[in-house]
Amino acid sequence: MPERIAFSRSSALSPDGTSLAVVHGAPPNTLSVFRPDDRACTAAVSIQSGGTGQALGWSTDGQLIGSVQDQTVVLYTWPGLEKMHELFSGLSV
Questions:
Q1: How far apart are CA 11 and CA 73, in angstroms?
Q2: Domains of the chain: which residue ranges?
Q3: How far is CA 3 from CA 14, 38, 60, 64, 72, in A?
Q4: Cα dist from 72 to 39, 49, 77, 84, 91, whole Å
Q5: DSSP symbol at 16
Q6: According to the 3-state scheme, what is the secondary structure of the chain?
Q7: Local structure of 88: helix, strand or coil
Q8: pLDDT at 53
Q9: How far apart are alpha carbons 31 and 41 in whole angstroms?
Q10: What pLDDT, on a 0 to 100 scale, did the predictor assign at position 63?
């Protein structure tokens, strides 16, 4: 049965169109990757939300997913959603 994505906040389609990354939940606390063809969830990871938006983006080669989380950009490897690096925003405006 296809996965239901409840309370989606942000999404990004992979460059090759085979995967859809989605930040979802209430509050948004999960980053999941789905296959658009059958909506099956192929990976999921808990994230931190708050302070900033939940923007997502893929690298052009489809091997990294960047996620904005609570004033931090977190990079995950794909496939697998292993946390690779965090970039902290120390800027105050």
A1: 15
A2: 8-88
A3: 18, 8, 26, 23, 28
A4: 28, 10, 16, 13, 11
A5: T
A6: CCCCCCCEEEEEECCCCCCEEEEECCCCCEEEEECCCCCCEEEEEECCCECECCCEEECCCCCEEEEEECCEEEEEECCCCEEEEEEECCCCC
A7: strand
A8: 65
A9: 11
A10: 98
CA dihedral 11, 81, 63, 38 (to 10 degrees): -50
Helix H or strand E encompassing 20: strand 20-24
Q: Is the pLDDT of residue 91 over 60?
A: no
DSSP code of 52?
B
What proportion of the chain, given as a percentage, has pLDDT over 70? 87
Q: Which residue's entry shows tokens 């609570």? A: 70
CATH, domain range 8-88: 2.40.10.480
Six token digits for residue 58: 């893929």
Residues 48-64 have a mean pLDDT of: 86
